[in-house]
Each structure stands twice: as structure tokens, then as C-alpha cells.
Design brief:
By secondary structure, this protein is an alpha/beta fold. Helices cover 55% and strands 9% of the residues. It has a five-stranded parallel beta sheet, with helices on both faces. It has a three-stranded mixed beta sheet with strand order 1-2-3, with helices on one face. The termini are far apart.
């Protein structure tokens, strides 16, 4: 709510909201804080208002972060109050129902498809077009920053636009837990159940955080069963495979695996370039030299969020310094946030050692002429990783694997890429190896 008599307050409130979003993250902000409005400002107390159903909960749960965000923008002595009550509200009479809000930029049209995410994209689109009929549940597995949440929002946007009135709800496990705890405290569990179990499509982000929350896990299990038994669609994201959720009850892991489990792999170079081009167009970035995008795509390889973040940081430096967006600026910024030295530490030798250890064979076996299945597949995985994670040529990689030619390396890479798309267990193994290699430093032993 902008106050015409105090235009500077409207500007300050925009800054406070930006600070809030940075502090709590996009998901929590959209669910709980996006609807807050400014109601007054007397130089000491910033008075806020929120929807009646959520005001007490928001004041209790987020009062401190609201106050610290306001102090960061206005003054160190600022206090927060809500209309109709103080900053220490009375107990709510019922649990607030989360607001479902989808990022309009996270649509299927804006999702860049590549070899690493083609199956996940296709499955998500099929679910959006025919909820409860295609893959139920759909379990999207990937490390952070590869587009899982984008696909959830894309499904939500699609169902809201073309679902004929179907109800779609998005939640994180953290928000689900907070809502459940509030329902228990306010004796409004019936309303809590209604808000989730009546959804035609339930989108659940970051299910790995369900671990070690016994009461929430029990309620989640019953919510899952209720929706599934009634033909409602569930889509779940997680940073690990169901079988790796060892602290989650087996009965839930089995249900996660009962539908389609699909893996999203880090984007290849051409996909990274397409993502950067799309972001440059969306943000109207004045880019005259595409070599800037090439530099970013070469340096930032395993995380879309980091990829786009690097571009944003280069643009920010351009805005602040007036330096043109060229390869000199891009190199200087990338050297600060994504130095090359760590990537150079990943060598073919280290990849061979890591893969051999993973599959219980020796490096000697890996480079030998043997075609035994227990050796041939790990060898192909090692070749694939060598091509993805090092700057070595195909011929150099072949030499490292017993003098094999470049055609053999290409064949191995294609076979691994094909299986990564269709076999989640293999995709998980390769992703873990890639992450392990990327994070281990120096001469630590594998």
C-alpha cells in the first residue's frame, strides 16, 4: 500500500520487501509475506497489515525478520506493529491457509530443454496436461539449482491457466511443517487437512527436509495416501533419490518410487548457452559480444542458478562502474566468483580413481582391454566424466584409457547419456560422482 503523502516510504517499503525476500527465500516470501502492506509510519513504528487469516501467524513467525529488514532500510530503532494488535500478537484462532502463488517467469515456455532435463520436462508437461492420469506420483530428483522448482511452478501455472478450474497447491516441506504445527497449536487440524487433501494437484518441494520430523511425516503419509487414492496428482522434488532418503520411513520411500522417478542432470554447454541467451533477452541486457556468454558457460557448469547469477553479477558491475559488458569485465567478475583453479584440479587420473573406488575395481582394470560387464560400464562412466569435467581432448582421454581412439570415447559418452535419461539409479550414481569430484580439493585421496 503506497502512501501518496509519503512517497519516500513507498520506496523504503520496496527495499524492505527486497530485503525480506533475500532473507527468507522466494518460496517462503511468496507464501507468507507477499500480501503484507504498509498501513502507517510515525518515524519510529512501522505499522503493517496482512490478510486476517494469516496476520497473527505472520506477526508471530516473521516479526523479528520483518523488524530487522525494516531496521536495515529505515533506522536501527524502528519497531514493527500490525494493525489491530501489537508486534506480540495473541494466539491465532485457526491455522492460516498458505497462499498459492506461482512465478510467471517459471513457465514451460521459459524452460530451456536439453539432454539432461528432457525426460523431466516431458513428464512434468504430461502431468500438467492430464493430472492424475500420466505419472502419479512424479518424483523429480536433482541437486539444487537445476530447475526442479521451475518445473513445479510451470505445472502450477499451466493448471491454473488450462486446468478448467482444477485446484493446484504448491508447498515446501518447511511450509507444510509450519502449517501443520500451527494447526496443532490452534486446534484447527481439520482445516489444515482440507487445504491440502482437497487439492487436485499438490506440488511438494524439497521433500528431503521431511527427514526426522515424525509427526509431520505421519501427516504427510496420510495426505499422500488420501490424494493418491482419490486420483489427485502429486509432484515431488528432492535432492536425492527415494532410496537415499534413509531417515524417511520405508513406506513413504516406497510410495515415492511407485510412480515415475526422473533425474535432472547438469546442463551441457549448448544448454547453458541457451539458458544465458534466454535470460539476456528476458532481462533486456545490452549484450553486444556473445563471447561473454561463452565465458560464463565454460566456467559455470553444474548449476543453473549459479549460471544466471554470474550473468546478473556481470551486469551489476557494468551498471555500477560504467564498464562495457565485454570479455574483460566478464573475466574479472568470474575470477572472483568462479575461479578456474578448482576446475583444473579435476584430472582424468582423479576421475579414474573415483570411479574405480565407486564400482569396486582397480584403475588397472579400468584401463585394461577387458570387456567384462563389471569393468566396461565403469570405464564408460569414467570416459563420460572425463569429457564433462576436464578440458582434455577426445584423443587425450583415449590415451588415458589404454590407447583407445576418439570414436570409442564418443560411443561411451553416448551410451552413458542415454542411460542417464532413462535410469534414475544410474543418473544418481553419476551425479554423486560428479559432485564428489567437483568438491574435493587438492591431492585428497579418493
Amino acid at each position: 500500500m503506497e502512501l501518496p503523502a509519503q512517497p519516500e516510504l513507498a520506496s523504503a517499503w520496496r527495499e524492505i520487501r527486497a530485503e525480506l525476500r533475500r532473507s527468507v527465500g522466494d518460496t517462503t516470501y511468496e507464501i507468507w509475506l507477499a500480501a503484507i502492506e504498509v498501513r502507517g509510519w510515525d518515524g519510529t513504528v512501522l505499522t503493517l497489515g496482512a490478510p486476517a487469516a494469516t496476520q497473527t501467524w505472520v506477526a508471530k513467525r516473521f516479526g523479528r525478520i520483518l523488524e530487522s529488514s525494516a531496521r536495515a532500510v529505515l533506522a536501527p530503532s524502528v519497531r514493527i506493529a500490525f494493525t489491530g494488535g501489537s508486534s506480540t500478537p495473541k494466539q491465532a484462532s485457526q491455522a492460516p491457509e498458505p497462499k498459492t502463488s506461482f512465478n510467471p517467469r517459471h513457465s514451460f515456455a521459459q524452460f530451456i530443454i536439453g539432454d539432461g532435463n528432457r525426460m523431466a520436462h516431458g513428464a512434468a508437461l504430461a502431468v500438467a496436461e492430464n493430472p492424475g492420469q500420466a505419472f502419479n506420483p512424479l518424483f523429480l530428483h536433482a541437486p539444487p539449482g537445476l530447475g526442479k522448482t521451475h518445473l513445479l511452478h510451470a505445472i502450477g501455472n499451466y493448471v491454473q491457466a488450462f486446468g478448467g478450474g482444477a485446484t493446484v497447491r504448491y508447498t515446501t516441506v518447511e511450509a507444510f511443517t509450519n502449517h501443520f504445527i500451527s494447526a496443532l497449536n490452534t486446534r484447527s487440524v481439520h482445516g489444515f487437512k482440507h487445504s491440502y487433501r482437497d487439492a487436485d494437484v499438490l506440488l511438494i518441494d524439497d521433500v528431503q527436509f521431511l527427514a526426522s520430523k515424525a509427526k509431520t511425516e505421519e501427516e504427510f503419509f496420510h495426505t499422500f495416501n488420501s490424494l493418491h487414492e482419490n486420483g489427485r496428482q502429486l509432484v515431488i522434488t528432492c535432492d536425492r533419490l527415494p532410496r537415499q532418503l534413509t531417515t524417511v520411513e520405508e513406506r513413504l520411500r516406497e510410495r515415492f518410487e511407485s510412480g515415475l522417478v526422473t533425474h535432472i542432470r547438469p546442463p551441457d554447454f549448448s544448454t547453458r548457452m541457451a539458458i544465458l541467451r534466454k535470460r539476456a533477452v528476458l532481462d533486456h541486457i545490452p549484450l553486444t559480444d556473445e563471447r561473454v556468454l561463452t565465458l560464463i558457460a565454460e566456467r559455470v557448469t553444474d548449476n543453473i542458478r549459479a549460471l544466471e547469477g554470474a550473468l546478473i553479477r556481470i551486469v551489476a558491475h557494468h551498471s555500477l562502474t560504467g564498464h562495457p559488458i565485454d570479455t574483460d569485465l566478464a573475466t574479472a567478475v568470474l575470477d572472483e566468483i568462479h575461479p578456474q583453479q578448482n576446475r583444473r584440479q579435476i584430472t582424468v587420473d582423479k576421475i579414474q580413481a573415483a570411479v574405480a573406488s565407486r564400482y569396486g575395481i582397480s584403475v588397472t582394470d579400468l584401463v585394461s582391454p577387458s570387456r567384462a560387464a563389471r569393468i566396461a560400464w565403469p570405464r564408460q562412466v569414467a570416459m563420460h566424466l572425463a569429457r564433462e569435467l576436464t578440458g582434455s581432448s577426445l584423443n587425450a582421454i583415449g590415451d588415458s584409457f589404454g590407447g583407445r581412439n576418439h570414436a570409442t570415447i564418443l560411443h561411451a559418452c553416448k551410451r552413458v547419456a542415454d542411460r542417464l535419461t532413462t535410469e534414475p539409479d544410474i543418473a544418481g550414481d553419476v551425479a554423486e560422482l560428479s559432485s564428489q569430484l567437483a568438491t574435493r580439493q587438492g591431492d585428497r585421496a579418493y
